[in-house]
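Contributing new complexes? Match this layout with manganese (II) ion.
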Amino acid sequence: MFRRRCSFRIFLLFLIIFGVLFWLQQMFRSSTRGDSSKMESHVLAVLIPFRDRFSELMILVPHLHRFLTNQKLTFTLNIINQNDSLRFNRASLINAGYLLTKDRADYIAMHDVDLLPLNPNLDYGYPEGDVYHISSPQLHPKYKYKKYIGGILLVTRIIFEKVNGMSNKYWGWGLEDDEFYQRLKEVGVEVNRPGSEIKTDRNDTFLHIHSSFRKRDYNKYFNQKEVSRKRDRDTGLSNIRFELTSTSQLVIDGFPCQVFNVKLFCDYNLTPWCDTAFATKNRTRKTL
Ligand code: UDP
Ligand code: MN
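Output block (do not edit by hand):
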């Protein structure tokens, strides 16, 4: 009788030990699952093409830092500062910014310095459909045409490389985003945009802090106009030429961002309109 009771107790003890071990194993599993999902989480590099817009930058950096932190995203803010005497080239700065940050991010946001997202439902998360146009033509305060993809655009690394980045032929204001749209369409990428989760409209989804004294460089020299309307098959991420002259960490109101000072190079035979002084001197010539 005593031996039977004793073996029952031993059995019970084993049962308890087994139970505890099983519970511990489950706990360990779920905690490692948590870790691995953290390791798999996405990293966003915000690329801000920039020159001489310091007052806008002072507003954007703290605003966007708070906005993206509220969305619990892992991100860096990168100012790609054009540091040469050539005309502004937004697309080439984005190509350069991409190459400078790609090892530390798996998707980018091309982000104008003067466009502030206001509606917290504007989602800067990883674009599962590869490309997500945040500042959609339904919501942008100024640009309304259907194929518009400028302002703020999320693109995965995979797609940015697949389309060879952006064209390097766009010096001065505009159309580089329309050319990028053609690159995306060619590889069959859909441009997704915000939907019914956004209850605000064109007037209160974004704030475009573009002062009237910030003049856009609309000049067209040589055959720039014709070339700008065509899909560019000559240039892109693979042949962007730039020099990183210096970098600095900037902290605005306690919010950090990385500044990349970039000097772009121009092939005067391919795009003689890259340099205002040169272009005005030779303005009568249609092509070089
Ligand atoms: N930009 C800049 N300096 C310039 C011109 C343009 O920093 O001299 C950058 C800036 O990020 C700006 C973006 O390029 O938001 C687009 O230019 P802009 O605001 O002139 O174009 P919009 O979309 O207002 O027509
Ligand atoms: Mn603007």
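Reviewers usually confirm one structural detail per submission. For this one: The radius of gyration is 26 Å.
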